[in-house]
Amino acid sequence: MCSHIILTTSVILSSVLYWSTLQAVSCEHNVIIPSEGYERLGQHESAARHYFWNTVTGDVQWDDPGDVPFETASGLLYWVGKDGQQEYSDKEALQYTWVEGWSEQYERPFFYNQDTGESVWDRPPDLAWRRVSVPEEL
């Protein structure tokens, strides 16, 4: 006696919904015949064009942690102002706990905590978020 089972699965990768059908045919042997692969059906309802990666902690998340700059292919950082224009400095920086400064003496950036007065050379996790574009082919 043979039985024929069709199993449909869906997978969400990088906020894109993919769909596949597996067919299982059982006679003398269990044989699973996969379809040609996953078919892209469209964006998941929580889809975003970017995800956020913390270069210090390694954390990755969909939710914007706040004031993460955009980055061009050449590595230039920019923010988008309230008027929608690109700005090459963060006009809102003074409202945040950690701000980045520049040491003329050591010719390198440092980070200053406006609440505690602490200064450090290493980028604190709060300032280490990067906006990463989701590839269109996913």
From TrEMBL:
The keyword Signal applies. CDD domains: WW (cd00201). Pfam families: WW (PF00397). This is WW domain-containing protein. PROSITE patterns: WW_DOMAIN_2. It comes from the Eukaryota. Keywords: Signal. Residues 1-27 form the signal peptide. SUPFAM superfamilies: WW domain. Residues 92-126 form the WW domain.
